[in-house]
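Thread title: Can someone regenerate the structure for this chain?

I was given the following input by a collaborator and told the matching structure tokens would be attached. They weren't. Posting the sequence so someone can regenerate them.
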Amino acid sequence: MSIELKHVNYVYSQGTAFQHTALQDVSLKIQDHEFVALVGHTGCGKSTLVQHLNGLLKPTSGQVLINGEDIHGEHTNRKALRQRVGLVFQYPEYQLFEESVEKDIAFGPKNMGLPEDEIHRRVIAAMEMVHLDPARLAAVNPFELSGGQMRRVAIAGILAMQPEILVMDEPAAGLDPQGRDAILGIIRDLHQTGTTIIMVSHAMDDIADLATRIVVMNHGQIAMDGTPREVFCRADVMREAGLEITEAARLAGTLRERGLPVPEDIYTQEEIRDAILRLWKEKVHAQ
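Best answer:
Regenerated them for you:
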């Protein structure tokens, strides 16, 4: 399932003294099974953009198409389309409200009008996808869990509706290292099973490990769109957008400044490790 934005503009408080243009002529197409990272400085329009992807916001002008269908078309079933595009807000655990983990995850499927046996099956499957033990945790009050576990419950509630596309706004924000690694591992697994992922993040090293494509936003516009290697090699554009490159890319740049023959397109920890090992072996053999 594809999502396409065509010349989308969005203006907050249009016609008032507080008018602010958040998106300017944004055109973007995301294909099936991609893992797209959306990055940019605070206030660049990232969160506004992702709220257009399942119809929470309507463009001031332009179109949002899902599989070629205008999500705001006169005869479009927006409820059905939203069920196919799951949106996980930042700190989704703040939206938990039921008295048990099972009931909270079941809320979405119940609203879809599914039979009880299908709801139960989906709850169990979603809990397993986010590495929560159904036998031990289904009846537990979600507010008795750790922050990382609560976030996994919230994500499971979206997964139980079986979206084809999962949109996530800073999914690891505020978590300790263990919780962060758990969430990112789940996202990686979901992508490997075929789910299209669109993720907003400020963590460049996480993006380097996960994304297949990076869209850089600056002042409500797309400043760059390409593979991680293409994007992280453009440190100048990243700096203009108020962003850093990965630690590996920065280290590679420092080594080149010192005259060492390090490739210019390095951006992952594994690549910089291999480059340093190669240089060390060449030095040993030369002695």
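The mean pLDDT is 93.
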